[in-house]
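Here's what a typical entry looks like (Acetyl-coenzyme A synthetase):
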Amino acid sequence: MTVHPVPAEWARRAYVDAAGQAEKYRRSLEEPEAFWREETARIDWIRPWTQLGRCSFDEADFGIEWFADGTLNVSANCLDRHLAEHGETTAIIWEGDDPSQQRRITYRELHEDVCRFANVLKGLGAKKGDRITLYLPMIPEAAVAMLACARIGAIHSVVFGGFSPEALAGRIQDCDSRLVITADGGMRGGKLVPLKANVDAAVAHCPSVEAVLVVRHAGNAVTMQGGRDRWWQDERAAVSPDCQPEEMGAEDPLFILYTSGSTGKPKGVLHTSGGYLTWAAMTHHYVFDYRPGDIYWCAADIGWVTGHSYVVYGPLANGATVVMFEGVPNYPDHSRFWQIVDRHQVNIFYGAPTALRALMREGDEWVKRTSRSSLRLLGSVGEPINPEAWEWYWRVVGDGRCPIVDTWWQTETGGAMITPLPGATDLKPGSASLPFFGVAPQLVDAEGTVLPDEPGVAAEGNLCITRSWPGQMRTVYGDHERFFQTYFSTYKGKYFTGDGCRRDEDGYYWITGRVDDVINVSGHRMGTAEIESALVAHAKVAEAAVVGFPHDIKGQGIYAYVTTNAEVEPDEALRRELVQWVRTEIGPIATPDAIHFAPALPKTRSGKIMRRILRKIAEGDVSSLGDTSTLADPSVVDTLIATRAG
Ligand code: WT7
């Protein structure tokens, strides 16, 4: 197997080399008090913390708290403290979907906008602890709105702009938002996303919403409801540019972000202030080896946790210059990413394997016609990167010069957990490599028996984390019991990630994918139960079962088995109708790739659907279906094989 050793120059000048990594890792676990005292010094505290943490994953005294008696304000950390020396430094370089559109915003300008935005929110009655839902395109105002919430102590809940009005409404209702922030529209690949119209449709079912603040961006026509809707640009002029940041406890909530799990309803993952910001800033510093003056671009949308931690909070806390891109990788053509790299002289690029695979398919020429000489480091996130895509990223995009950091983490973890450090870790394509400081991974088998962790001995099992880390989520919003049940009840005393994982002889971790009913489609996490409940909500559908199957570009595709009601004759028209139905119920990211009309689903005698068999058939691997003798009616399987979709 190929190993790409740390380039000598990186080992020499990076923040940490291999020896430094090992030593810091040891200290993080053996001398946590001293270690975190140093690392939290990268944050400005209003009142310094004296209590490190009180963390237990056991049911009896379950709880997670870090730096609990410290106080701070997250927006002041991302803005105010940079003003004295770096006020004129560019904070955000924005590039629109249309390549002729660019904006540059300094830290001073960003600070003023955030203060004004915060004052507008206050004027609308928002206060500490309120939940505010954001449904925005990738524009600087998205960061402004997030930081304005943080400034006044309101909790933001960002909903990805690709979600449908139905999905948006569910998320507004779950956290009882009184305020929604949106834009007239967003642009993606030359097409308008009618955000305001979607909000109108959603809010019709949300009695809690009193006001909608609208950013004028795409210029499309929208209906403004008197008494409820206001333009940000009008309000902006009418408020003061000064706004004192609210003093927040380290454990006060910063944001909620909804994510799919193995049950139908998305969970509101809640992150707090002190520990989260420390983790976001610290991982951004070490993983990307961020230096003042670097131009840094994370291509994720702010609707996902990657956008929270690595477009907004981590980099801005570190005073970085961040590129923010509204569009998509293939518009106007397949060179777009690399044109942006050249135009803004990007040094660090962080993106998703799915985009790389899609671009790889179009051929090297689109990449090669750009210079990319400014690039120094590349990152990957969101799903396993297959070694072929890794090597292409390395050889074609990075010209064989740029280390690749393949970062494994989750919405729940707040920031990178298993990741190479560019000056320290020899790279194995496809492996997220080693645990970050403070992270204690453990592999267990299905029964929870810990697999031996010894040098030279490989193991494969379910990935758990045995100790808390500052960036860890604190609860499921409104349902603390569900938090415990979901993550800490499968294996007693451990956080269970839901991922399968192999550790090789050198101690490198290789994530093998989800072991629960969650699938990863183009780096987006989807609960199969969520898609199933959307399907069965259709009047003609009696039953549905959704599984993932390997997909060349998306990583995993969505394969839906559907049993229609008795009087319905399934046909092509119904297939199209159901695909459209799921798009409207959840959003385009949940579009099924295949719908397989099935007269019946394979079930055990107790009525449980045998998903293992459904996965095999969807994968087209019917040679090893395993034991089907426990099925109530084994002939169902033959029918499914004979009628496989796609
Ligand atoms: C799931 C989390 C990481 C933030 C964005 C996605 C998968 C994530 C990797 C990686 C292999 C990865 C896991 C994880 N995943 N990064 N580098 N290698 N798998 O956050 O939506 O919460 O999804 O994404 O399966 O559990 P998310």
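The pocket of WT7 is lined by residues 259, 304-306, 381-384, 406-411, 432, 497-499, 511, 514, 520, 525 (CB under 6 Å).

More examples are in the samples folder.
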